[in-house]
């Protein structure tokens, strides 16, 4: 092997090139790689945080939905109970009103019966008076007739 000046010159140039690269090129490349590595790590961490927050939000949404369903069921239950109460109240009021109507109708019926009895008594008295007048073949005067009617009504 023959070492000549070209080989020594190329070796010196290579060493200078390596020193130059190590001094001026390598540090910015390593810095850029370190920054990129940090950004990638931050992005991955943010993705993990986002995934965790999404899971938490999903759990909260599921919980809120469950609570809303429970509240809706409770509201429906209360509404059904209130509807049943209103129906029962209406039934009670209807029964009370029916009873009042029955009592009023009975009272009115009793009044009508009493009126009819009074009318019948009056007619019976008039018929009896007319019959007695025919039997006696004479007409009674008005005051005597009224007194006779009152006495007969009182007796009937």
Could you give the topology of this structure?
Blueprint: H1 5-136, H2 142-155
Structure report:
By secondary structure, this protein is mainly alpha-helical. It is built from two helices and no strands. The chain has one domain (46-155). Helices cover 94% and strands 0% of the residues. It is rod-shaped. The termini are far apart. The model has no long low-confidence stretch (mean pLDDT 88).
Overall strand count = 0
Rounded average pLDDT: 88
Helix content: over 70%
Tally of helical runs: 2
Looking at this protein, list some descriptive labels.
156 residues, mainly alpha, 94% helix, 0% strand
Describe, in short, the structure shown.
The protein is an all-alpha fold.
């Amino acid at each position: 092997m023959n070492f000549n000046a070209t080989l020594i010159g190329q070796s010196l140039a290579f060493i200078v090139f390596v020193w130059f690269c190590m001094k001026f090129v390598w540090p910015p490349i390593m810095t850029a790689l370190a920054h990129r590595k940090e950004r990638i790590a931050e992005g991955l961490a943010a993705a993990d945080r986002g995934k965790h927050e999404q899971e938490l939000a999903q759990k909260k949404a599921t919980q809120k939905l469950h609570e809303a369903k429970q509240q809706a069921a409770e509201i429906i239950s209360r509404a059904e109970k209130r509807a049943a109460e209103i129906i029962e109240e209406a039934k009670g009021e209807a029964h009370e009103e029916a009873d009042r109507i029955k009592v009023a109708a009975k009272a009115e019926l009793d009044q009508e019966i009493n009126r009819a009895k009074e009318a019948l008594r009056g007619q019976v008295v008039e018929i009896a008076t007319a019959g007695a007048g025919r039997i006696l073949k004479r007409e009674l005067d008005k005051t005597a007739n009224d007194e006779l009617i009152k006495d007969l009504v009182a007796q009937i």
